[in-house]
């Protein structure tokens, strides 16, 4: 093996380690929906932690202090109505405490038709995304732009390896945006964690989602449905701009699309 190949291999290992993002929790995101999902997730997580700690504490206590080697004999009883009522009411109460906020969030997530400012039709293709600004006459095609030298391990992988595109989806901040997802071939899934949006793109069907993006910036996602050989090469990039900059960009796109 040549020294150049060894050097590139070491650089690839170092760059991979440096760019690794060791995150073990959901992202809070930048929308009310994504933050609500994160809050609900953490609430149910801590409820489960408390239940697990309580159940295992009682179990370990019983195993240790009531073991046979200490001369303890098992009690014999049958059909205790009070105990049965208690262990029915406690799980029922816990489930209600979980279900109420979950139902409220689901209702809010599915409110796609109320006062939307912009509708984007998202079509999945093997293997790229198509974005149509409904009513504006603007259509974009977004494909991965990671250089082949990086993909084939001939060059150092950059910070956004496999997560960069030639044409991002441009959106305005603080506007209600309605997303309509579908597919031209197989099932894809449009997943943008920062927005709290993950919708399947199914041929012949339209799935809906919405978001109000509170902060400008670049946000990245990817296809989350195994859709073929290049499934891992369908990144999503959103460029969120202030309203004035977005309108200027939109007008420039309209001018470009005019015959």
Structure description:
It is a single chain. With 259 residues, this protein is an alpha+beta fold. The protein has two domains: 32-109, Helix Hairpins (Orthogonal Bundle), CATH 1.10.287.90; 118-257, Sandwich (Immunoglobulin-like). The protein has five helices and ten strands, in the order H-H-H-E-E-E-H-E-E-E-E-E-E-E-H. It has helices at 3-19, 32-65, 81-109, 148-151, 243-257, and strands at residues 118-125, 128-133, 138-142, 169-172, 176-183, 188-192, 197-201, 207-212, 217-223, 235-241. The strands form two sheets. A five-stranded mixed beta sheet has the order 3-2-1-5-8. A hairpin with a 2-residue loop joins strand 1 and strand 2 (128-133). Helix 2 runs antiparallel to helix 3 (81-109). The radius of gyration is 26 Å and the shape is elongated. It starts with a helix and ends with a helix. Residues 14-20 have low confidence and may be disordered.
């Amino acid at each position: 093996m040549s020294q150049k190949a060894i050097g590139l291999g070491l650089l690839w290992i170092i760059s991979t380690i440096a760019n690794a993002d060791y995150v073990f929790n959901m992202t809070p995101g930048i929308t009310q929906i994504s933050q609500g999902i994160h809050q609900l997730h953490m609430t149910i997580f801590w409820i489960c932690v408390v239940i697990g700690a309580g159940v295992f504490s009682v179990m370990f206590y019983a195993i240790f202090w009531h073991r046979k080697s200490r001369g303890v004999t098992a009690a014999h009883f049958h059909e205790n109505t009070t105990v049965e009522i208690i262990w029915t009411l406690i799980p029922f109460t816990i489930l209600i405490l979980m279900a109420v906020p979950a139902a409220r969030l689901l209702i809010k997530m599915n409110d796609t038709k109320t006062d939307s400012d912009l509708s984007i039709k998202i079509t999945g293709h093997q293997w790229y995304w198509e974005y149509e600004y409904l009513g504006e006459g603007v259509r974009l095609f977004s494909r991965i732009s990671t250089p082949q030298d990086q993909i084939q391990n001939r060059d150092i992988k950059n910070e956004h390896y496999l997560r960069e595109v030639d044409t991002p989806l441009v959106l305005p901040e603080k506007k209600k945006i309605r997303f309509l997802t579908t597919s031209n071939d197989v099932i894809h899934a449009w997943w943008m964690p920062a927005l709290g949006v993950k919708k399947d793109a199914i041929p012949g069907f339209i799935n809906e989602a919405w978001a109000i993006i509170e902060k400008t910036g670049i946000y990245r996602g990817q296809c989350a449905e195994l859709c073929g050989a290049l499934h891992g090469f369908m990144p999503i990039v959103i460029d969120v701009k202030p309203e004035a900059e977005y309108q200027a960009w939109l007008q420039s796109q309209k001018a470009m699309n005019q015959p």
